[in-house]
Design a protein that fits this description.
Length: 523
């Protein structure tokens, strides 16, 4: 279908006009080959997409382009000259900057300090000037349309979406030649700000590498794409000449038939509520009330900052409501944290928003990360049995179609998709009968999404109850039996079955309130 050599590809992205080009890149970690033969060319003033399944080699390619790791073979050119950065900072001095999906910000430093590191303004006796740092940080924020963010704010206290914006802003401000954006919208509900910043960067002649699993936004902002599969560049194509089906086929090696599973409404109305929320208030939430019954998948649709994060955190005791009532299996509860929520009644397991800082223990194996809540099952007496740990972890990993060979790897070395599979496997391994999943497929490829969807459906089909928030409306349309739309910390609409469409969700998420269907019908 497409020539597998990028220099002969559709659109002719040849290295002779490239700002940054790479040819024949190879990288192995012991017996594991992460990158077999990768070629890519980025053109000044153009946005080029990098596509591929999780584990295809995208992260390794980015690490090589940014100097985080050195290739075992192959070479790179920057503006026609050999390019071999030995660190992220070295790449940045050559005006190649990256915004990572797994944020690289220092959480206990201010916004301004994160934006300016390592070159903080100095005052007398080479001491860092706090005043000049804040002034320079404020100037950068204003230049990129983020003057609403306080430059003195501690980064770790910002919402995840604002942390993502700071990461992106720092990269754009340092990218004089090449800007690499790794899943930049994974934590952003809207793309307007980001795309505006990208267009301004390309107008300055910056070449942009855009990595995303969301083809719709790739087509909106990118003109060309390179597809990786199993560590090898399959093709570089003009996106105007390649259909979604063509791209999926290049990514997975076979034709991809996107089939939406017909929604079968489960008859749960006669069952007692597994989880009941009554008049919950606090922080941004106002009068939140709903019920979740066994066998149901209840979606939450909302734009950024409408109270969805506070809702999930209150339900597992991370944050305290000001008023209201939470019941599990008919009994009122007050949790001291997620571990406490696991022990109450039939148990509630929570998948957090940010896997790097709230989910994984990067230095431990994937198997250990999966079995952490049920470590006793992997023990022989007071000692942990490696064999039992792998056995318990594999049983849970099988439910999300995670390749068992990854269980022995440090989880920090895995792709984002496999990290997410491991975390979902961990929630399933707990034996909890209620799952609270916050953006469960954030930043994963189309194949991994289908595995996650299948695991969620299977859990509900077995009598489990699922409450999930997603930043992707098609995911809610495909998965949810019922849906709550939030705006301003309130439920603006409740939908069920065929009423759940992207158009109806968008209207409700923007605050266009219509008379709600009664709780008695939709609870």
């Amino acid at each position: 279908m497409f020539d597998n050599q990028p220099e002969h590809s559709i659109g002719g992205t040849g290295a002779d006009r490239a700002a940054l080009s790479a040819a024949g890149l190879h990288k192995a970690y012991g017996a594991t080959v992460a990158l077999e033969h990768a070629d890519i060319s980025l053109v000044a003033g153009k946005v080029h997409a990098l596509l591929g399944e999780n584990g295809a080699g995208k992260s390794t390619l980015v690490r090589i382009l940014t100097g985080a790791v050195a290739p075992d073979a192959g070479g790179m050119m920057l503006n026609g000259k050999p390019y071999a950065p030995h660190s992220l900072l070295d790449a940045r001095t050559r005006k190649v900057a990256t915004a990572f999906q797994e944020l690289s910000l220092i959480p206990n430093l201010s916004v301004a300090q994160n934006l300016l590191l390592p070159n903080l303004p100095r005052a007398f006796a080479s001491m860092v000037s706090t005043r000049r740092t804040l002034e320079a940080g404020a100037e950068i924020l204003a230049r990129h349309g983020l003057d609403r963010i306080d430059p003195a704010a501690e980064v770790g206290r910002l919402a995840l979406a604002d942390r993502q914006r700071i990461e992106i802003t720092r990269a754009i401000d340092n990218a004089g030649q090449v800007l690499i954006l790794d899943e930049p919208t994974a934590s952003l509900a809207e793309t307007d700000w980001l795309f505006d910043q990208i267009r301004k960067a390309t107008q300055r002649g910056v070449a942009v590498l855009y990595i995303s699993h969301r083809l719709a936004e790739v087509r909106e902002i990118c003109t060309e794409a390179t597809v990786l599969r199993n560590g090898t560049t399959i093709a570089s194509v003009d996106l105007g000449d390649a259909s979604d089906g063509d791209i999926f086929e290049m990514m997975v090696g076979r034709k991809f038939a996107h089939q939406r599973k017909p929604r079968v409404m489960r008859s749960a109305s006669g069952e007692a509520a597994r989880l009941a929320v009554m008049d919950l208030c606090g922080h941004d939430l106002q009068d939140m009330s709903f019920e979740l019954r066994p066998g149901e998948i209840l979606g939450v649709a909302a734009l950024e900052g409408q109270g969805q994060q506070e809702l999930f955190r209150m339900l597992v005791g991370i944050e305290r409501p000001h008023s209201g009532r939470i019941e599990v299996d008919g009994a009122p509860v007050k949790f001291s944290g997620p571990r406490d929520a696991l022990k109450i009644g039939s148990g509630i397991a929570y998948l957090p928003e940010e896997r790097k800082t709230e989910g994984i223990f990067s230095g431990l194996s994937a198997a250990t990360n999966v079995v952490l809540p049920v470590m006793g099952q992997a023990a022989r007496g007071i000692l942990i049995s490696h064999g039992r740990e792998i056995s318990v972890a594999q049983a849970a990993a099988d439910r999300v179609e995670m390749n068992p060979r990854y269980l022995s790897f440090p989880i920090g070395d895995l792709s984002g998709g496999n990290q997410q599979k491991a975390l979902i496997a961990r929630t399933l391994a707990t034996g909890a009968q209620t799952l609270l999943l916050f953006d469960p497929s954030r930043g994963v490829d189309v194949g991994t999404k289908q595995s996650i969807y299948a695991a969620i459906r299977a859990f509900a089909d077995d009598g489990g109850a699922v409450l999930f928030y997603s930043s992707e409306l098609p995911e809610i349309v495909q998965l949810a039996d019922r849906c709550l739309a939030l705006y301003g910390g309130r439920i603006t609409r409740r939908f069920k079955g065929a009423e759940i469409t992207e158009q109806s969700l968008v209207a409700a998420m923007l605050g266009h309130v219509t008379p709600e269907i009664t709780e008695g019908v939709l609870a």
